[in-house]
Structure formats: structure tokens, C-alpha cells
């Protein structure tokens, strides 16, 4: 319990240390997401742009899905993203309607 005249002391070193740890964690997550994005972009670009010019009996074709999926996968991802976005907007609208 605090008595009259007592005050809270803030350990500045602990706060600065915690902020640095969080900053390093944010940087690590950002780096990981950047690497994943670059990998997906490189894979998809190679799959869509370069692979059609490679002979169909070449071994590299074993590592990629058929060309039909090159259009189907992004379209499905866009539809799913659009659905989640519409659901989120709908929930926000319902919540704001209840508060009013």
C-alpha cells in the first residue's frame, strides 16, 4: 500500500529494454514476412512467365502445378479476401448500429 508522500517510481531502463525487445521482434516478423512475400512472388513469376517457354518434358515442371491453377489460385484468393472484407465491414456496421 502507498502512504501519503509515496510515489511510483518508473524504472526507465526496464521500459527502454522492453521497447528494444519489441522493436527487435517487430523487425524479425517484418523480415520474415518480407522473405515469404518475395519467395511467393518469385515462385509465381517463374511459374507464370518463364515456365511456359520451358519444354514440357523438362524436370522443372515437377515442382509446379498445372498452368490452369496459375489463374485459379489468385482469383480464389481474391474472392476469399473480398468475402472476409465484406464480413468485417458488415460486423462493424452492425456494432456501430447497436451503439447508436
Automatic annotation (TrEMBL):
Cited InterPro entries: DPM2
Presence of keyword Endoplasmic reticulum: yes
Keyword list, A-Z: Endoplasmic reticulum, Membrane, Transmembrane, Transmembrane helix
Membrane topology designation: Multi-pass membrane protein
Domain of life of the source: Eukaryota
Involved pathway(s): Protein modification; protein glycosylation
GO cellular component terms, A-Z: dolichol-phosphate-mannose synthase complex; endoplasmic reticulum membrane
Primary site of residence: endoplasmic reticulum
A Gene Ontology biological process term: dolichol phosphate mannose biosynthetic process
A matching Pfam family: DPM2
Spans through the membrane: 29-50, 70-94
Single GO term (MF): enzyme regulator activity
Location(s), subcellular: Endoplasmic reticulum membrane
Sequence similarity: Belongs to the DPM2 family.
Biological role stated in the UniProt entry: Regulatory subunit of the dolichol-phosphate mannose (DPM) synthase complex; essential for the ER localization.
Quaternary structure and interacting proteins, as annotated: Component of the dolichol-phosphate mannose (DPM) synthase complex.
UniProt-recorded name of the protein: Dolichol phosphate-mannose biosynthesis regulatory protein
Organism: Liquidambar formosana (Formosan gum)
